[in-house]
Each structure stands twice: as C-alpha cells, then as structure tokens.
Amino acid sequence: SKLLPLLSEDEIHVFKRARNHKTLSQSKNADIVDYKRATGFEALIGYLYLTNKVDRLNEILKMCIGETNEN
User: Fold this and answer.
1) Which residues, other chains included, contact 48 with Cβ-Cβ below 8 Å and sequence gap of 6+?
2) Distance between CA atoms of 24 and 36, rounded to whole angstroms?
3) What is the pLDDT of residues 21-62, one digit of tens each?
4) Helix 32-50 and helix 54-65, axial crossing angle in degrees, nearest 10
5) What pLDDT does residue 67 have?
6) What is the structure's pLDDT at 71?
7) Rounded to an integer, what is the distance from CA 11 to the centroid of its chain?
8) Contact 19/39 with Cβ under 8 angstroms?
9) pLDDT over 80 (residue 69)
10) Would you say the C-alpha torsion 54, 17, 26, 30 has a positive or negative sign?
11) CA dist., res. 1 & res. 12, Å (int)
C-alpha cells in the first residue's frame, strides 16, 4: 500500500490489527487481499474519527483521492 509509509506508528498498528484479524465472512466481489486491506483502512478511518483526529483523517482522505496542498 502506498499509504502505509505515510502513517504514524499508532496508525499502522490499527491498520494492521484490523487487516490481520480473522474474518468469518468474505466479500463476493473482491479477492481476500483487497478485502483485508479495505477492512484495515476502514478501521484506520474509524480510529481517527473516534479519537477526534479530524485533521489527520482529512489529510489521509485527501492523500487517497490525490489532493495535495500543491493543487
């Protein structure tokens, strides 16, 4: 993932913990690797939101859609 090197140690921990968690269900339209990455990303977004790190949340979301301060 291109985003992983840009994350803090805590953010990486949240992402990897969710990504590596054993799942009982499986997506019908995605392979298991994509499904697990999406789960990790969702957990990271939830973590940032619940810990009220809204500025960091917005920064990561902008990185994901390709927006930078240079635009």
Assistant:
1) 11, 54, 56, 57, 60
2) 12
3) 877 677 777 788 888 888 999 999 999 999 999 999 999 999
4) 150
5) 62
6) 43
7) 8
8) yes
9) no
10) positive
11) 11
Q: At residue 17, what is the residue type? A: R
The CB density around residue 39, as the number of other CB atoms within 10 Å, is 17
Residue 49: phi, psi to the nearest 5?
-65, -50
The pTM score is 0.80
Three-state SS for the chain is CCCHHHCCHHHHHHHHHHHHCCCCCCCCCCCHHHHHHHHHHHHHHHHHHHCCCHHHHHHHHHHHHCCCCCC
